[in-house]
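The authors assume throughout that readers already know how a fold can be written as discrete tokens. In essence, backbone conformation is discretised, so a fold becomes a row of integers matching the chain in length. A single example would do more here than another paragraph of explanation. For illustration, here is how one protein appears when written out as sequence plus structure tokens:

…
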Amino acid sequence: MREVNAAGGVVRRDLVRGTQVLLIHRPRYDDWSLPKGKADGHESPAETAHREVLEETGYHCIVGPEISVVRYVDRRGRPKVVRYFAMRAEQGAFVVNDEVDEVSWCTPAVAARRLSYPRDHDVVRAALAVTW
């Protein structure tokens, strides 16, 4: 079975009261996760991450370093590899779309409780540990 290649981002913003990360809610799965999606054509993982974050969240982001590679079997039984990048939101605003009905800026502690998949917890920790 062919491996699914995807990329996404841990979008953060640093406020006076602390750092927040952006989570998405996908009604199709009724889950809270990090924005990500499949590669389109021959784009690089960083290009995929940038496009998918913009499409799902409405935020234009600066793409930082790659912070994590996650491997798992998707809901269709296919092996999937997701490359995650640290990102900073520069501008934009969320608008409900086909894939995402809600976003939430969360402190790292709230994100840890809200994320639906344990594998995402390690990705957020890795993103917060990197300085760039």
About this structure: The radius of gyration is 14 Å. The CA atoms of residues 50 and 63 lie 7 Å apart. The first strand starts at residue 4 and ends at 15.
